[in-house]
Amino acid sequence: MAMKEGLIGRKRGMTQVFGDDGRMIPVTVVEAGPCTVVGVRTKAAHGYDALQIGFEPAKKNVTKAMAGHYKKAGVDTPMKVLREMRLQKSEAVAAYRPGQTLTVELFVPGEFVDVVGVTKGKGFQGGVKRHGWSGGDQSHGSMFHRAPGSIGASSDPSRVWPGHKLPGRMGGDRRTVLNLPVVRVIPEQNLILLRGAVPGHTGTLLVVRKSVKQTKAQQQKAKEAK
Question: Which residue range(s) make up the domain with 22?
Fold first, then answer.
């Protein structure tokens, strides 16, 4: 799916703010950018339209190949994180050039964004926590509390069907939360406040991009905010 412009950032935690009507709004604080445009992909040269953006200065030396890549783009400081943001419209590529800096001013309060991140890893978990199984009786004589129990017939099909819910690794998956409203933008601190929760723990890496799927009501609300 084609994407819209966005930024790389980190989750800084959750808090609450008060709107103009005095209501409390739960928000996630995201430190987004500043991001540097390292490369511009065009359909004519690469077969697709996209921006390669970098986030956070690299603390260690980069390889000679990557050093040459940054030098060609005119970027003096190598970046720790590189991501590509595909663009919906080819004409949008013309507005960007290598070395350009993108900030949270890309977003405005009232519009909707999609946030991509990795969920919290919870390690190996049983079926009760992982899938919400009810479990067995908790009385002392039960002898069956949180065990998986039967997972299939013996003679037919004599195997476990693929996809059967069982204990296993939980969390640590890439997830996208759609249509989170932008409550406030604080350019001085590179912060953006989003209503609702986003994947991952505090400090996790996120991609915040302009929403690609909106209902008609959300589109109308975004127009009114502008």
Answer: 1-33+104-121+171-226
The answer on 187 and 109 residing in a single domain is: yes
Question: Is pLDDT above 80 for 210?
Answer: yes
Whether residue 29 has pLDDT greater than 80? yes
Sheet holding 79-86, edge to edge: 79-86, 50-57, 35-41, 101-102
Cα distances from 218 to residues 44, 178, 225, in angstroms, run 34, 12, 11
For residue 2, what pLDDT is reported?
Answer: 45
- Digit-coded pLDDT (tens) for 33-61: 899 998 888 888 888 888 899 998 888 88
User: According to the model, what pLDDT value does residue 223 have?
Assistant: 64
Please give the torsion angle defined by the CA atoms of residues 174, 112, 11 and 63, in that order, rounded to the nearest 10 degrees.
70
Instruction: Answer yes or no: do 111 and 184 share one domain.
Output: yes
Instruction: Say how many CA atoms lie within 13 Å of 176 toward its Cβ.
Output: 13
Question: Which segments within the chain are labelled E, that is strand?
Answer: 6-18, 24-32, 35-41, 50-57, 79-86, 101-102, 112-118, 123-125, 168-170, 174-186, 191-195, 205-210
- Residue among 6, 80, 2, 28 nearest 191 (CA): 28
Q: How far apart are CA 101 and CA 84, in angstroms?
A: 15
Same domain, yes or no, for 42 and 87?
A: yes
User: Can you tell me whether residue 167 is helix, strand or coil?
Assistant: coil
